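[step 3/7] fold_predict: job queued, chain A
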Amino acid sequence: MKLIVFKSSFLACVLLFLWTGCASQKEVVYLQDVEPLVQQNIAQNYEMIIHRDDLLGIMVNSKNPDLALPFNMPLITYQVGSESAYTGNQRVLGFLVDMEGNIDFPILGKIKAEGLTRMQLTNLIKTRLVKEDLIKDAIVTIQFLNFKITVMGEVNRPGSFSINSDRVTLLEALGMAGDLTIYGKRDRVAVIRERDGKRTTLFHDLRSVDVFQSPCYYLQQNDIIYVEPNAARAGQSSINQNNSVGVWLSAVSILTSVITMIVAISK
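[step 4/7] structure written:
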């Protein structure tokens, strides 16, 4: 009879363990409802919009370098490393978008940049250079010099990250931060965005394919991603160094009692 009770208890424990494992897997697996081999249309409206305080690197080129020279900011050299061993890197000084949304461009003067895409501003400058008979064969290239995002919360490597391209997704940003820890809530990943003097926060469920449809899936400069902690992590915050020892002693005591009971039943 004791053996039957022991086997029943053991089976119940195994079933409980398997059920808990399945429940945990549903909490952490990404894109659970994605359909294999089903193609989805990819949104193409991820081009970044120029905002106030953006720093733009604008280069003008021409077959005649002397014509382009007045429109280009100088290159600066800055030190990377210690005084004994360093490398000198170069970058071009940028044009800052002021509080009115303008840049002060050589010869052309104030140009409204806020609200335009990089390509729209490129075409605007090129058109004016040609129209005002300054450079007939102007080639204009624009880069964002201060495009960065910040990832906070339950990720392995929180921090700010500089982006070298015009396109970065929410999943890519989380990858840069080393992915979520096991304590991060996959259904409460927030993107905080500031635009036109307003701040908005949008939550995402990484377990669902709906994340691809979010207006914040393609990130903008200065976006902040915050991953909320789950209940287990929140509970740990109330345990300090002193009472954590008591918790472990209690756990060991309970485990010892359970083992003793199992041995007694099996005899």
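[step 5/7] annotate
The chain has three domains: 31-45+148-233, 55-144, 240-267.
DSSP finds six helices and twelve strands in the chain.
exit 0
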